[in-house]
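Internal ticket #5521
Category: modeling
Description: The requester needs a full-assembly model to guide mutagenesis choices. All entity lines are attached below as received. Residue total reported by intake: 492.
Assigned to: D.W.
Attached entities:
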Amino acid sequence: MSAVFSHGRLRLYLLKLLGGGPRHGYELIRLLENRFLGLYAPSAGTIYPRLARMEADGLVTHTAAGGRKVYEITEAGRAELAQRADELAALEAEIHASVADLGAVAEEMERGVQGSVRDLKKELRAAARQVQTPRTQEWKQWRAEWQRGTQYGAPTTPPPASPGTVTDVERAAELLVAEVRDAVARGRGTPDNLRVAAALIDSVRDQVRRLLGE
Amino acid sequence: MTTWTINEPRRLPLDGAVSRLDVWLAMGRLNVVGTDGPPSVTVKAVGSKGLTVSLDDGELSVRHDIAPSKLRPIVGWWFFGGKRRYNAEVTIAVPTTAAASLTVISGSLTASGLRNGAKADVVSGSITLLGLDGQVHATAVSGSVEALGVGGDLIMETVSGEIVLGDSSAHRVKARTISGAVTCDLDNPKARDIRIDTTSGEILVRVPEDADLHVDLNATSGRVSSAFPQIAPMGMHGARYARGRLGAGTGQLSAYAISGNVSLLARPTEDFSEGDQA
């Protein structure tokens, strides 16, 4: 279908569309698509470079409106349009002929859709392979999660508590252990006192255990 | 009301507006094209039973006249010369504004350029849609549904067949299949409701990077994967589900697969003005 637009004829047709009033690039694409009953929809990558070249040749100008560029035909553009009127008429006739046989249009449409669908599936499948976890790695994750008894994707490290309090408690416990060891090593205290101290520590341990939710 | 009986290939130009189209074919190929030009019916091939075309107050109807009592299962038609009697190849041009209701029992159906919605039913065969808008409902029993550039409100259902949706700006999509894959490439960051279901098939869905969606992906015995870091797959023994929010989370995307993988992919946003420098 795009064969209709060989040898600079797309440029001529774009001039013709802009001759009807200023338009932005996206509108031009839609107009072309409508003219070809949806069979030919040029991409932005086709249209914008053409427009840029036409602008360099002084046939169109653009103004930025709301983040989009609106293109407008210049006097030089109108002159070229008038000069190539015969060529334009021939092009219009050709486009008309290419969409006149609706049966052929529908068949080409079906082929076009099937082709695009195939490409799309291939593209998405390739993209999906990129995000899917490889099987070997997945197996390792499964094993690790089984050993941990956690869920897939769950955070592996326990949530850190506020660090200050933890160290305070630990320091207190270490201090207690150090003092007890020191006292025993120096042979201080009677066996009775030591027994009372052990019972005391036991009861404190119980309370602490209850407090920390063990 | 004007009625024509068509027994041989011919082109039938129609004068007068067409606002509704109703087609019922037992067997064959149906193409419907929305155009700005005049409406017409082109019959390229027709079986011995002929076709009836009628135009009544803007309602164009093209059908095989089969009494319900004569309806036999499709297999019966093949055995008893159904193809010779009913096979038809029909291309219909209607204004883009016409609302269409299309049925083909056995064969293929293509529709393009209809802006006011369409209902397409095929029992055994494929459905191809291009550039449709409005309320679109496509149902196939055994066959695939392929759609490109469809906007509006889209429902696609098939029992054994694949569903593919590309370049779609639809704001509501419902795709359901029993045994077949679903591939969806969505273009509309403001989509409101997307539901995809399959029993035994894979789901591939791509949404724009800047989409505003609440995402809910589930795979019963397959795996879930996601290209968005904020939607991380979770589950007991494998990636079985993923939930999360993209952007403002105004729309809803849910995908359920029983025995197949579910993959959520990101579509880079295209900025049209970027092409200017090329």
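Resolution: model delivered.
Comment from assignee: The mean pLDDT of chain A is 80.
Ticket closed.
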